[in-house]
Amino acid sequence: MPPQKLTFGQKVKNHFKRFWWAHLIFLIVSSLCIALPLAYVGFPNIAQSQLNDATLELTSQVITDPTPDAVHLEMTTISRSDSIFRPTLSAMNASLFLEDTLPDIIPFGQLEIPQLKSTHETEIIINQNLRILNQDQFLAYNRRVMSSEEYRVAIRATADLHLGGLPVAHPAFNKVVTSKGLNNLKGFEVLDFNLSLTAAPGQPNMFGMVYLPNPSPMTLTLGNLTQNLFVQGQPIGQAFIDNVVLHPGNNTIPMYSITDQAAVIVLLTSKFRDGVLPVDIVGESVVYNGQSLEYFAAPLRENPLFAKLDVGKALEKLGLPLGALTGTGPLPPPAAPSTGPAPSPGT
């Protein structure tokens, strides 16, 4: 009998029996062709995309122990991400810079970001000495903090991102943090002050309290501030505020001044007979632990403060009505005669 003709199914079955090893190799190679691009190309691309979509919010920044070359920085930021992945980012060093130095960035400092386990909201706490890498750029940064209602700082690093058994990805960590600034200390006010007419030359003769608002999340240790006082360009003295630490919110701080009282009286009896002096307050220096800090002093110098000082009211507290100086009112009453016992003869 002629051999029975095999069906198509039997032929396929016999084929796989003979060449199973070839199909296994093909399956393995095909799987690798799919898995390897996903692991080595797809995952890094996904990691970069997820990192790009994450946002950073600065919630607290504390600057202490400033020196000409460094400051101590404690900073808390919140990273928010909608990613379904929960990778771990290794510790990294990140450059701090202003965006107008792009594309060839000029960092003014370097953050030491600790290892992070990504979640929907991840708190990032940094506590370090921040060495000033470029004085000009750090000065530019402080100018923005002082003068801006809102300012931006850029951060750049290369991250090592780990997720399970996948190969380590190296996405670029390029972020911009937007924060409220000091807004030129808008709302500054001299709350109250008193005069001394008996102070020795060169000694403080005006004492008061000043209100310094801080709308930012930053606590800023400045030190001792010296400021020049002017009335319509005419110098009338200097004001001093010692041991200044600006906390977020409202700050009320003691101030004392050494003023040229003779110049003040001339102003009161000529141009400002109502007793109110329009005073421009211009930063002169900032000193902490005996060291001058130009990166703080320059922004204060470039953003003068202004106050209306009711000197007439302060004089009235001393029993010296303004009218007695300007000739527009009665003289102060004479001093009461002494009621003490008469001196003994020979004394």
From TrEMBL:
Pfam families: DUF3712
Region listing for Disordered, in residue ranges: 326-347
GO cellular component terms, A-Z: fungal-type vacuole membrane
Residue spans of biased composition, Pro residues class: 330-347
Regions crossing the membrane: 20-43
Superkingdom: Eukaryota
Keywords, sorted A to Z: Membrane, Transmembrane, Transmembrane helix
Protein name: Uncharacterized protein
The species this protein was found in: Aulographum hederae CBS 113979
